[in-house]
Design goal:
Length: about 170
Amino acid sequence: MENQVLLKIEPKVRIIDYLKWNIWMLGVAVVFFILTFIFGAIGINTLPEMEPLVNMFMGALRIIAVVLIPILYLYRTFVMYMHTGKISYKFYKDFVRFEDNFFNKNSKEILYKNITEVTTDQHVWGRAMNVGNIHIKTNVEISAGIKIPYVENPEQVVAQIRKIISEAENE
């Protein structure tokens, strides 16, 4: 009974969560693509002997904007999505354990007596989706604590965490 998990949090990330946080990258690709047409329209290729080289350069920029940036963006989004699915936070009687089993296996334990603060934050999109981040801060210099991202109903979960910590302190 000593190692019974009192609370387990596994961030449940929807792919839309990553898409909306990284939408700026697609914006960069669109701006990049539009700029190639603007530079072509303002006469950047006025020298006849430079025209083939400039056209090749503009074509390469368009390929980068249309193909390479979105592929890199989608790859990054997929890797982040898969990584978050391999993270868990388990609250036991006396400590919390963070485990990350994506490429390497990482584990971190924090005793409740070292926790100084448990907070939550929600951005505009998070409030609309009822998703937020939980921050557990410690008084240990080596570790600044842990951040638990993409928690549904973060206020309720923080209340559960505070209850577990206060019960551990009262024993």
